[in-house]
């Protein structure tokens, strides 16, 4: 019943860095939306349109008045699965569509969402190269707030192209899909680990790519971690943090034993890996989202840690 209550803000409403205040990307990235109920008369001072108008403009289909609880009960038993929205067709049409469609793990979603050309934010400060696998705007904002100049580059930038920008630090962003699809990116990050001695921060997919580049393995979670109230534990301080998560894959802890990485953070609910640290180099990563827009803000200190490493 909360879907659409507040409406949709204006993309042109930007902050001091020129980044949209109320959006984490420049367009809708999902391919369809299913809700039980949506609000057709939104009420919010910043709203310029309803969710229906927004989705219609961006050519994203949606359907409401669906028993989403029933869908949830099926997914929580069977796990994440492919689906289709079928209108004015028999259910068999949906199954036919699914049989012909590529499987989720076979699609390189990153190439669909990564920036096509380099983009620079800020003019002064130390330079951070942000490899964009599908970056959220608030990651860029958190780097700019800390005084960095940020150069956002496409996901398929080679390691030598990244190093030619003379970065004081590198950030590997979040992004969608199976990390094993990014064979070339993993190879480039492996090259970086072997030749670059300055700080590197990986977030979400960036965490998984670091693990794979180091020789570890990843696997698909049955349900994935989705939400803003996930508990993780810092194995060094034994502190618990509440974090925002949105991932369907994780690094296999047992496969880290032959690498130069150690486990830094773990998920309290299921014990999956939530963060890594390199044993000798200034490299750290989180599976969750420390930028967490619109929150919680328990782990924005990760950006402070990275900043201290860069300024050291």
Percentage of residues assigned to helices: 25-40%
Q: How widely separated are the two ends?
A: 49 Å
The topology string of helices and strands comes to EHEHHHEEHEHEHEHEEEEEH
β-strand percent reads 15-25%
Tell me which CATH architecture of the domain at 110-311 applies here: 3-Layer(aba) Sandwich
What is the name of the CATH superfamily of the domain at 110-311? Answer: Class I glutamine amidotransferase (GATase) domain
Number of E strands: 12
Radius of gyration: 20 Å
Output the structural class: alpha/beta
Q: Strand arrangement, largest sheet? A: 3-5-4-6-7-12-11-10-8-9
CATH class of the domain at 110-311: Alpha Beta
> How many helices?
9
Low-confidence stretches: none
Shape, per Cα inertia axes: globular
- Rounded mean pLDDT score: 95
CATH topology of the domain at 110-311: Rossmann fold
Biggest sheet descriptor: 10 strands, mixed
List keywords for this structure.
10-stranded mixed sheet, 9 helices, 312 residues, globular, Rossmann fold, alpha/beta
Descriptive report:
With 312 residues, the chain is of the alpha/beta class. The chain has a domain at 110-311: Class I glutamine amidotransferase (GATase) domain (Rossmann fold, 3-Layer(aba) Sandwich). Helices cover 26% and strands 23% of the residues. It contains nine helices and twelve strands. The strands form two sheets. A ten-stranded mixed beta sheet has the order 3-5-4-6-7-12-11-10-8-9, with helices on both faces. Strand 1, helix 1 and strand 2 form a beta-alpha-beta unit. The protein is globular.
């Amino acid at each position: 019943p909360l879907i659409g209550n507040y409406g949709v803000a204006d993309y042109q409403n930007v902050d001091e860095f020129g980044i949209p205040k109320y959006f984490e990307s420049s367009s809708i990235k999902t391919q369809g939306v299913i809700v039980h109920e949506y609000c057709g008369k939104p009420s919010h001072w910043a709203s310029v349109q309803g969710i229906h108008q927004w989705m219609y403009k961006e050519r994203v289909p949606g359907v409401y008045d669906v028993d989403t609880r029933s869908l949830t009960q099926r997914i929580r038993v069977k796990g994440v699965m492919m689906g289709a929205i079928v209108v004015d067709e028999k259910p068999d049409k949906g199954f036919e569509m699914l049989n012909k469609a590529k499987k989720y793990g076979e699609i390189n979603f990153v190439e669909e969402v990564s920036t096509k050309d380099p983009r620079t934010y800020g003019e002064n400060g130390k330079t951070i190269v942000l490899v964009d696998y599908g970056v959220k705007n608030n990651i860029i904002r958190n780097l700019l707030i800390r005084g960095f100049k940020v150069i956002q580059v496409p996901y398929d930038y080679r390691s030598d192209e990244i190093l030619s920008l003379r970065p004081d630090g590198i950030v590997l962003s979040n992004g969608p899909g199976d990390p094993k699809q990014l064979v070339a990116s993993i190879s480039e990050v492996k090259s970086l680990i072997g030749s670059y001695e300055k700080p590197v921060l990986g977030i979400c997919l960036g965490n998984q790519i670091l693990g794979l580049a180091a020789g570890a393995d990843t696997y698909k979670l049955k349900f994935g971690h989705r939400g803003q109230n996930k508990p993780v534990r810092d194995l060094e301080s034994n502190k618990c943090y509440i974090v925002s998560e949105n991932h369907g894959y994780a690094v296999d802890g047992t496969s880290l034993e032959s690498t130069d990485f150690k486990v830094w953070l773990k998920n309290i609910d299921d014990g999956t890996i939530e963060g890594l640290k390199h044993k000798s180099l200034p490299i750290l990563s989180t599976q969750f989202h420390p930028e967490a827009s619109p929150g919680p803000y328990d782990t924005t200190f990760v950006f402070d840690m990275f900043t201290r490493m860069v300024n050291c």
